[in-house]
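Example 4.3 (complexes with small molecules)
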Amino acid sequence: MGIIYDPASRQFHLFNQEISYVFRIMENEQLEHLYYGKRITPYQDLSYLSERGHRDMQVCPIKGNPYFSLEHIRQEYPAFGTGDMRYPGYEIEAEDGNRTVRFVYQSHEIYSGKKPITGLPSTYVESPEEAQSIEITLWEPDRKLEMKLFYTVYECLPVIARHVEFTNLGEQSATLETAMSLTLDMPDKDYEMMELVGTWGRERHIRKRKLEVGVQSIHSLRGHSSHQYNPFLALLRPNATETSGEVIGVSLIYSGDFLAQAEVDNFDVTRITIGIHPQEFRWKMSPGETFATPEAVLVYSDAGCNQMSQAFHQLYQKRLVRGVWRDQVRPILINNWEATYFDFHEEKLLQIARKAKEIGIELFVLDDGWFGKRNDSRSSLGDWYPNLEKLPQGIVGISEKIHAMGMKFGLWFEPEMVNENSDLYRAHPDWVLGDYTKSLGAGRDQYVLDFSRKEVVDYLYQKMYEILSSAKIDYIKWDCNRSFSDVFSNAKSPEEQGKVRHQFILGVYDLYERLREAFPEILFESCASGGARFDPGMLYYAPQAWVSDDTDAVERIKIQYGTSMVYPVSSMGSHVSKVPNEQVFRNTSLHTRAAVAYFGTFGYELDLTQLESSELEEMKRQIVLMKEKRNLFQYGKFYRLRDPFEGDKNTAAWMAVSEDQTEAIVAYYRIMQPIEWRYERLPLLGLKTEACYCIEEWERDADQEQDGIRSGSELEQIGLILSDWASGKKAIARELQGDYMARLFFLKEVSERK
Ligand code: DGJ
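Answer. The structure with DGJ bound is encoded below.
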């Protein structure tokens, strides 16, 4: 791994065993992008990649050189207003209104390790040998502005992390109108763009579209990263599959408004851009001020999407998530939300908790409704004191009772929100986002608090601190249940309004950071009406996130499959809930519900006091299994095997393999039972080809053909044989057939074949 600067060609080459990233300083002292992809031999002069043609109608900044047009040069971080007509990396308005700002190369510094970004989440290293970084300083002499481009290349991952910092060293203000985290100009458009799209209850479904000339983009202007789009896109070569072909993934470590786009120009050059959405952003930098963009992460794979995802998983699991929970398996929890909603009292909760304890659950989570006078969504957000009618001894009392049972205790908060009907709103109506003297749009009967104001964040910190320091709280579910509208800070000047959306997120990060520091043992789970803030920014503070409010097993297969494109299994909040399902009214077996939820943090969210003893017995077995295998489920190398969005669209499969490849778990899901179907085989991945594996099916051992010992190569080349009644094999027990079926297989290496 390394970063090389060659003074003769003025080229920078960032590389490790897998990737190369090359750019150079041009004759006009701006930066030209030369190459990004599979590793090429370092020390090679790649100047020949600076192709220059004469294009009619082009604007040439170097007078007398008709071959030099920024519009036709693949740039490293392009400016607006200098002849490049594509969407830029940044746009700055000087105090005199001039938006043409030209930065030129000044110096660079290469060093081992990686620096944090003040106030923002970012990937990190544990020792300087893990990565090398370079800071390129560019300078705008007229306005005395400095721009630093930061790059880090990790030694053992096909990852480049980038961000940008602007500093105003002049005496006048300068206003950032656009400050993207990354642009990347690729030489052709022969890609499909993959995105994770959806809505509430249907988050992160995979969508692919062929790149065409023009702009194709996804974005959020909702204040959070959103249900609709995730701050991620990937470019896939047309032949790319899960296991082969080139894939470039781009992910933004940020939880607020974002824009991710691919712009293809009329010469088929593709510019990828990702960063804070410029639409509502306007950041006036006073003299001396620095602005840092969020970090963007580039992952390169020459072996398809699985390899890209595994790199994201490893990076985010081990070098983004921090703290005591980073490497720990997650406690199996019971959450009371779908069991009781707002309608509970302490005794009801304790009844559920007792049952939970009996079946081996480790953490009881008290969801929404425990504070103020909250009995529905219309009141009390902001009033963070216990409702003594429901909880006579408050949070202290119930947390002690739960602990006395031998379980941990978790609590729900929604710190960023306030109801109009609350003491907090009555005391501080101007603390909301939006002109409080006018009628404001409400979502779920609530307003958004102005977290761009320090006093608001301080207040919330104080209130949460009081509760967390007085009671025994081991886990927090941090919710955020509405998109933002009417964004305006009642405390800020007109020229500061363009900062509010970003400052809001900085305020959220600040509150998280302070609470994490004060209570390092607490496990945080982020949540936003399900999965509206399932993003890397949140993972820096909360190692797990609620995937979706849709807890139906069948819906969850697609949601978790899509989520796995970027995010590790250990981060996916997943629960077994009741049937008929609360969102889609579907009846699925307890077996199938668990078989999906195992691939996540795993817990239950239903009224255990209403279940048959046979169901509780089955759950007990599930919990024993999860306790035994959760390290493999949550931290095994994850392989997607069958795509529910493609092919027959009726089956899906994935597997987790232990680091030493001696153990694996395979899950196969079939939505509707077909008839007179093909013989079904499922080729596996990630095994030792020469090793022998003993295969056992979980709680469904009627399939004699499958049980036994197979070599890794057979399992990879031929696969598991999964034919059943659908393929005419009537020897299998009838009750194991039917719709919404899940099969789980455990593979263990054995010394030899019987
Ligand atoms: C939305 C979350 O996603 C749910 O799990 C639950 O916590 C509710 N909010 C509570 O209001």
